[in-house]
Specification:
InterPro entries: DUF6601 (IPR046536). About 45% of the residues lie in helices and about 10% in strands. It is α/β, with parallel strands linked by helices and about 300 residues long. The chain is globular, with a radius of gyration of 21 Å.
Length: about 300
């Protein structure tokens, strides 16, 4: 039996985790003594998951394009520490979350991201992870989903996106210049990390659904969210929680139209129509662009 590796010390955790994090609206503190709370915040994609049914409208099922290609397209890299904004693009910008040091540490994966033995789904977690079938299993039980699998799939998907973003040494240089990777990391070390993560060819089967898509259109995403929760967008107290970036201000007219559209599309007949439209993605895009002109979704402050 393989001996268990010693746990990461407090100093080691301090060296690979951020200086502080927010746990709720009021509490700010160090992450090294609240690691699991920190991970629940740092790997949180709940808001973006609300739009998962419309991912096919927001982007394509493919890996993100390398960083050198992003720049060649004229996109400016904007650093964002929120996971739910990673690889969202709008106009001439693409938002990218830096790869944290803790995801480069194997002991951190086994200690904090792997399913612990105390979890009732630990054996299922290990079996699905080794077989590369985790992405197909939203939960291990019909009654209670395994929270550890949720964090694992997000972390693996995030790493998968970086494997695609940093393919060449030129991509690595761009990542270093924008502080997207730790400053101490060297390109040969990055290649070893990629080789370890891709070993076995099962990485894709362990990632969250969001990461099966590449870059997502932020303009369309905000419109989808407005359609999904129109009353929130009509509320004057919405603030930052209602849009992915506070710099986007929504006009009340399209929000009101969205509210009416949501009511109309709540019938079973409309749901049947939407189901049939989804089978013809090209048609959906035509309807989407025609019904909601892009200049209406928001205006710059």
């Amino acid at each position: 039996m393989k001996p268990k590796e010693p746990a990461l010390t407090e100093d080691e955790l301090r060296s690979i985790l951020p200086a502080s994090f927010r746990n709720g609206n009021a509490w700010v503190g160090p992450p090294h003594n609240r690691v699991r709370y920190f991970l629940a915040s740092d790997l949180n994609m709940d808001k973006l998951t609300e739009a998962s049914a419309y991912f096919f409208v927001l982007g394509k099922v493919k890996s993100p394009r390398p960083l050198h290609y992003q720049l060649a397209l004229g996109l400016e890299i904007q650093v964002s520490e929120r996971m739910d904004t990673h690889l969202l693009w709008i106009k001439d910008k693409v938002y990218i979350k830096p790869l944290p040091q803790y995801l480069l540490e194997p002991k951190f994966w086994s200690e904090y991201l792997d399913c612990p033995k105390s979890c009732p789904y630990a054996s299922d977690f290990q079996l699905l992870r080794e077989s590369g079938l985790m992405r197909r299993s939203a939960q291990f039980s019909q009654e209670v989903p395994c929270e550890h699998s949720k964090l694992w799939k997000c972390a693996m998907g995030f790493v998968y996106s970086y494997v695609a973003l940093i393919a060449h040494e030129s991509d690595f240089a761009i990542a270093k210049s924008h502080k997207l990777v730790p400053g101490s990391l060297e390109f040969h070390e990055w290649k070893l990390f990629v080789d370890r993560m891709l070993r076995g060819g099962k990485l894709y089967g362990q990632i969250a659904e969001r990461f099966t898509y590449g870059e997502l259109d932020l303009a369309r995403l905000n419109t989808v969210m407005m359609l999904h929760r129109p009353l929130r967008y009509l509320s004057p107290w919405g603030g930052d929680s209602d849009s992915f970036f506070p710099g986007h201000r929504f006009s009340p007219l399209p929000a009101l139209c969205a509210a009416v559209a949501t009511v109309l599309f709540s019938s079973e007949q409309a749901k049947l129509v939407m189901t049939r439209l989804k089978e013809n993605k090209g048609l959906v895009l035509v309807v989407y662009v025609t019904c909601i002109p892009s200049p209406l979704y928001c205006s710059r402050c």
